[in-house]
Amino acid sequence: MRCQVAIIGGGPSGLLLSQLLHRAGIDTVVLERQSRDYVLSRIRAGVLEWGTVEMLREAGVGARMDAEGFPHDGTYLACRNEGFRIDFKDLVGKQVMVYGQTEVTRDLYEARDQMDGKVIHGVEGVVIHGADTDAPHVTYTLDGTEHRLDCDWVAGCDGFHGVSRQTIPDTVLKEFKRVYPFGWLGILSETKPVSEELIYAQHSRGFALCSMRNAHLSRYYVQVPLTDKVEQWSDDAFWDELKRRIPAEAAESIETGPSIEKSIAPLRSFVAEPMKWGRLFLVGDAAHIVPPTGAKGLNLAVSDVHYLYHALVQAYQGDDHGVTHYSEQALARVWKSERFSWSMTGLLHRFPDRGDFEARMQEAELDYLQHSRVAQMSLAENYVGLPY
Ligand code: APR
Ligand code: PHB
Q: Across the strands, what pairs with 220?
């Protein structure tokens, strides 16, 4: 088979890139290891930067998001069970959109179907050949048969555990890591969200987050030691701990109920450089991971897709500037989002190895944030999304 751009990975970044390129007349094939149902069964975050909202609309997949998503003008931060609001709309004139990543991925699959986009599920043993030549190709096995896909470019949208990053020689690739000494225990519950907007709570017992999917589906998280197991946490224990950490009035009014999903996720920051090697590009989680505290995971994948989509359209019009500089351009925004996610994590979590002085530093920074419009503007500008 032959296509112009071979895309490894049928998650949100691979599907969005495929959809945008198809609409620009560039044909792609998406190779996905898992089934569609499996990809859609992953529970992921749901806060979209406004740049992401506009990219999804540009790709023709904005209708259900605009109909069912919740634009938020602000968010709450809390310290010592007292909350204060960061008003994005007033501070930087922008909003975010609360709409689950699973729904974004579902909309992208439907849009691919409507355009007869080529998404092949259940592929195994994907190998990228000749990425450092002018004629790369990809081989894979499907139902026991070996297949070869010739292409001009390869987009590695295969996540942290994919083959794309591993294709770049160790002599070229440099990795930057930070693993945090705690995780997030999250639950999904068919209960009314406790607040109209998200609540990010710093507390001496650890971080907590109140989020939502819709008016009847809530998502809550509490910071737990990495050694904790989900089995150790009954629903009651979860709700009791959450209430201890969030603003008092929220704790009094929160609707509790059985969890329909419960899991613990580790927190880490990770960046791989460069994000381009020959005719292979890394996109999304294949190149970088952020701790979820800044709600940047999906948004950073869309940011990479923004740069690569425009670069490839220009390349097929004879202008190689974008593809040549993709790695620097994408990484410049990646590092700023990594910094924001790292600083939010440092501000709002309890670090077991930190003493009283550091705890006071956190509280002083939250106090400064509560009373400084300038500090709030900086946080708001980063949260709603820095310009591309
Ligand atoms: N061959 C084919 N497909 C693969 C391979 C492989 N060797 N390895 C991984 N994949 C597929 C995975 O099954 C997954 O569906 O690549 C896809 C990668 O999707 P994601 O991990 O969702 O990564 P990305 O599309 O970059 O989306 C980033 O996902 O993890 C969240 O917080 C993250 O929100 C961010 C978003
Ligand atoms: C979520 O809704 O799951 C969510 C929201 C914001 C975050 C992280 C997760 O920062």
A: 187, 210
**C-alpha of residue 48 to centroid of ligand 2, in Å:** 10
Residue closest by Cα to atom 19 of ligand 1:
11
pLDDT tens for each residue of 48-91: 999 999 999 999 999 999 999 999 999 999 998 999 999 999 99
Atom 1 in ligand 2: residue holding the nearest Cα: 45
pLDDT band at 45 (very low <50, low <70, confident <90, very high): confident
CA-based nearest residue to 68, from 102, 42, 113, 20: 102
Q: Establish whether 169 is a catalytic residue.
A: no
Helical residues (DSSP H) of 246-296, grouped into ranges: 248-253
pLDDT tens-place string over residues 272-290: 999 999 999 999 999 999 9
Which among 112, 142, 113 has a CA at the least distance from the CA of 125? 142
Out of 7, 33, 302, give the residue to mutate to test ligand 1, the one with the largest number of ligand atoms within 8 Å of its CB. 33
Which among 240, 247, 249 has a CA at the least distance from the CA of 222? 240
Question: Using a 6 Å cutoff on CB, does residue 155 contact ligand 1?
Answer: no
Q: Please, which residues have CB within 8 angstroms of residue 332's CB and are 6 or more apart in sequence?
A: none
Task: Indicate if ligand 1 lies below 6 Å from the C-beta of 304.
Answer: no
